[in-house]
Each structure stands twice: as structure tokens, then as C-alpha cells.
Specification:
alpha+beta; 19% strand
């Protein structure tokens, strides 16, 4: 009786190999989803930066009556952290009330270096987002400009 109890303990090598194979298959199928979710989470930081800088630009327009030049924007923009997803933030003004905020992105999981989020302000004070990011990680309020230049 004692001998039969000792021989039934544990798993066979074949059972362990089957379990490892099943876990490997599940992991390989879910890896792209995890990569996409990590990229989307990183983009939340970039969207927050965009919102903060849109507010700074709106305040500048209220105080000075025109969209800030690059030099003026450099005086009011926030400093980026070393580990930020954003590589650079810049503006270009088209006229007194219209212009763009361009957020250039660093290389990260699911994001290629120098991809961008471009927020454009029109004459009606509405902001529109354009980006060259892949459609599967593109923020909801952004439109894809895949194949177009900045």
C-alpha cells in the first residue's frame, strides 16, 4: 500500500511537456495584444502632453492675440522627462489663430522613433489630431495620415 502511494505522485515528463506546449501557444497568440496595449498605454502620456500644451497655446492666444511662434512656445512649453515617450514638442503657426502642435515620439514598444501626433487648431478654435501611427494603436480622436508627410 505504501509503495502504490509513492508511485502515483508527481507528473510524467510527457504531461509536463504538453502543459508547457499549451502555455507556449497561448503566450504566442497573446503577445501581439500585449504589445498593442503597452503602446496604447504609452500614448496616453503623449495625449496628456498634447492636452496640456493645447491649454498653454490657448492661454497664449488669449493673452497675446496670436498663435505662439516657435521661440515663444519654447518659453512656455513644459520640459520633457528623460524617460518620456515624447522626443520633442514643437509648434508652427499658420496665422494669428491657427497652427499646429507636433509631438514627435521616441522609440518604444509598438512605436517607431519619429512617429508623431500632430494637433492642428483651426480658425473656429477646434483641435484636430493627425498621426502616422498604425491604425491598431491610433488614439480614438486621431486620424491616420499613413503615407503622407508631416
Amino acid at each position: 500500500m505504501l509503495l502504490s502511494r509513492l508511485t502515483t505522485r508527481g507528473f510524467t515528463l510527457l504531461e509536463l511537456m504538453v502543459v508547457i506546449a499549451i502555455i507556449s501557444i497561448i503566450a504566442s497568440l497573446s503577445a501581439p495584444t500585449f504589445t498593442r496595449q503597452i503602446a496604447k498605454a504609452k500614448l496616453i502620456e503623449a495625449q496628456n502632453l498634447a492636452t496640456q500644451h493645447q491649454s498653454l497655446v490657448e492661454e497664449f492666444i488669449l493673452l497675446h492675440g496670436s498663435f505662439p511662434s516657435e521661440a515663444e512656445f519654447n518659453l512656455i512649453k513644459q520640459t520633457l522627462a528623460d524617460d518620456s515617450i515624447a522626443k520633442a514638442i514643437s509648434v508652427d503657426s499658420q496665422n494669428k489663430s491657427m497652427g499646429n502642435i507636433l509631438i514627435t515620439l521616441n522609440d518604444s514598444t509598438g512605436i517607431t522613433e519619429n512617429q508623431y501626433l500632430k494637433y492642428s487648431r483651426d480658425a473656429s478654435r477646434n483641435w484636430q489630431c493627425l498621426s502616422d501611427l498604425d491604425n491598431n494603436i491610433l488614439p480614438l480622436q486621431c486620424e491616420s495620415v499613413a503615407g503622407e508627410n508631416q
